[in-house]
Design a protein that fits this description.
Layout: E1 2-6, H1 12-21, E2 25-29, E3 41-44, H2 49-58, H3 62-70, E4 75-78, H4 80-85, E5 86-90, E6 99-104, E7 115-121, E8 125-131, E9 136-138, E10 145-150, E11 153-159, E12 162-165, H5 176-186
Parallel strand pairs: 1-2, 1-3, 3-4, 4-12, 5-6
Antiparallel strand pairs: 6-9, 7-8, 10-11, 11-12
Bound molecules: glutamine.
Glutamine binds near residues 79, 80, 83 and 133.
Pfam families: SNO
Keywords: Glutamine amidotransferase, Hydrolase, Lyase, Pyridoxal phosphate
Family: Belongs to the glutaminase PdxT/SNO family.
């Protein structure tokens, strides 16, 4: 399996390291030419969604990635990556807009927005979750499955080939969320 990790800014190195440790081949996506080869999945990491959105446009990656995801490419977006995938963004501007969710930016407030917890994740079990100025999900569309909630807020969703998480699984020692994504890729 060959997984591209969007490497414009943010927590991309940790995703690549985790996926490699699980046996996947990874490569970094920094420019359109990086997308020339065959690949089976995509990770959009945490970081800052406004900056990432601007870079996706400036570097000519926006259209290609939106087409690939719409065409069924398995994708995992974490934190800012969730915002990048969302069709509607509260407190920001939609980017790829491939997923039928509303992302609420900085849903926990800017100061108290960083915390760790453990919560059930559908089909996986109790997993550690690290939130850093995290968004949450509102108004999931009909085709969207809610996979995890924390304190009444939706923090993980799946819509077909798209997985979006408000937390940072690449920062915890637990590998099961990345395994879950690789199983999605394998099943595609
Ligand atoms: N608050 C950031 C944003 O709106 C996301 C934070 C993160 O990815 N850790 O883009």
């Amino acid at each position: 399996m060959r997984i591209g990790v969007l490497a414009l800014q943010g927590a991309f190195a940790e995703h690549a390291a985790r996926l490699s440790s699980l046996g996947a081949e990874t490569f970094e996506i920094r420019k359109a030419a990086d997308l020339d080869g065959r690949f089976d999945g995509l990770v959009i990491p945490g970081g800052e969604s406004t900056t990432m959105t601007k870079l996706l446009h400036d570097l000519g990656l926006f259209e290609i990635l939106r087409e690939r995801i719409s065409g069924g490419l398995p994708v995992m977006g974490t934190c800012a990556g969730l915002i990048v995938l969302a069709r509607r963004v509260e407190g920001g501007v939609p980017c790829l807009a491939t997923m039928d969710i509303t992302a609420v930016r900085n849903a926990y407030g800017r100061q108290l927005g960083s915390f760790e917890t453990v919560a059930p994740f559908a089909g996986v079990g109790e997993v550690p979750m690290t939130f850093i100025r995290a968004p949450c999900v509102r108004d999931p569309g009909e085709g969207v499955a809610v996979l995890a909630e924390v304190d009444g807020r939706i923090v993980a969703v799946r819509e077909g080939n798209q997985l979006a998480l408000a937390f940072h699984p690449e920062l915890d020692a637990d590998t099961r969320i990345h395994e879950f994504f690789l199983a999605m890729v394998a099943g595609n």
